[in-house]
Amino acid sequence: MHNTESSTANYTGLEGSILLKENYMSDAHIVINQGGTSSGKTYAIEQALFCMACETEKQVVTVVGQDIPNLKAGALRDALNIYSSSPALQAMVKSYKSTDRVFEFHNGSVIEFKSYENSQDAKSGKRDYLFINEANGIDWSIYSELALRTRKKIFIDYNPNSAFWAHDKLIGRSGAQLIISDHRHNPYLSKQTRDKIEDLRDVDVELWRVYARGLTGKITGLVLSNWHICEKIPEDAKPIAAGLDFGFSNDETGCILVYKQNGELWIDEVLYEKGLTNPDISLKLTAANISKSTEIVADSAEPKSIEELKRLGWYITGAKKGADSIKNSIDILKRFNLNVTRRSINLLTELGRYKWKTDQGGKTLNEPVDSCNHLIDPLRYVALNKLKINKLSKAKSLLPKTNLQPYDFATVHLLK
């Protein structure tokens, strides 16, 4: 379809990783991007889509996510970064309509960002290019309807936590190309980020296989399974406290708000960002409409930060840590049904990865993996300080049980 590798630059001046080349140059009808964390697959696919929209007039490109909050936090944010970093691309885009989430080009092409509630909803509209972002969060029935109405090419991407319909119905079929990538294919990552990803091998080989090498696995042994997604915090829910975990260059600063209603906990993500000083945190909390009378339970290992936020007027205390405090706080949280708002994208991601450590023989240890927990830790802090209850019946998980086994197929790395 594309004669030269340099043709991308002729339109947008974009520079990217090898994933941009592989996706842009692919002749397959369905291009499947299976990748570990921070491989840059979503960014590269969207760069290719911008190029395709620019080079041919009146193209319709649809980017689909499981819901709008996920799109805004991921694929749409990446697209806006790509757009803002390329003057040549900006010259070719007529407008970006934030309300409708649509890029309109001078040549009549459009890139739209959408989500679909069901397969019937997905029957509306046709397109030239389709991108299914985080495809393992979207039903096969929705994908099928969208694919039927796509004229030229389909891209999908996902982290391979476990096998799903892409493995069962697409990989290995005629017209489908599988690209497996990981953080080593992303030249723009810092050494600290790479080291953090590789360090997963020391705590859990299965996590390392999935997130450091992009290999299909099955994440088992989750610490918390008693959670599900809610649309919003009920109006009559009683605020308990906010939880705060400090980070800076390598780790995110994370903050959540915890409420209680009918014996259940309701949790809303407030903040998840790197590079924040304590004055920055103060400004972010104010921007999130958190009152200074709201109690904040923070990591007691940061007494200087706690004191500085106190002097900025915040009602903040340290978590009451002690012997077995991690285990105790997890035990407390397991006694509640946890309702997490749909917009709490990073907290939902952490809950899906937060698991028990295992030894070399695969035996589960009574200690969680100290990774991907910058919002779970503040949730534990609130549990330690505010939820110590003497007698509670064990809450049942609201999630269905699954007997899915890891998908076993011949893995071919197209990127060496």
Q: Overview of this structure, please?
A:
- The chain has 416 residues and is an alpha/beta fold.
- It folds into 2 domains: 7-190, P-loop containing nucleotide triphosphate hydrolases (Rossmann fold, 3-Layer(aba) Sandwich); 227-386, Nucleotidyltransferase, domain 5, CATH 3.30.420.280.
- Helix content is 32%, strand content 23%.
- The chain has 16 helices and 17 strands.
- It has helices spanning 7-12, 18-25, 41-55, 68-73, 75-84, 87-92, 140-148, 165-170, 191-198, 200-203, 205-213, 278-287, 303-311, 325-334, 345-351, 376-386, and strands at 30-35, 60-64, 93-97, 102-105, 110-114, 127-132, 150-158, 176-181, 227-230, 238-245, 253-261, 264-273, 296-298, 316-318, 338-341, 356-358, 364-368.
- The strands form 3 sheets. Strands 3-4-5-2-6-7-1-8 form an 8-stranded mixed β-sheet, sandwiched between helices. A 7-stranded mixed β-sheet has the order 9-15-12-11-10-13-14, with helices on both faces. The protein has a two-stranded antiparallel ribbon with strand order 16-17.
- Strand 16 and strand 17 form a beta hairpin.
- Helix 2 crosses helix 3, helix 3 crosses helix 5 (75-84) and helix 14 (325-334) packs across helix 16 (376-386).
- The two termini are 23 Å apart.
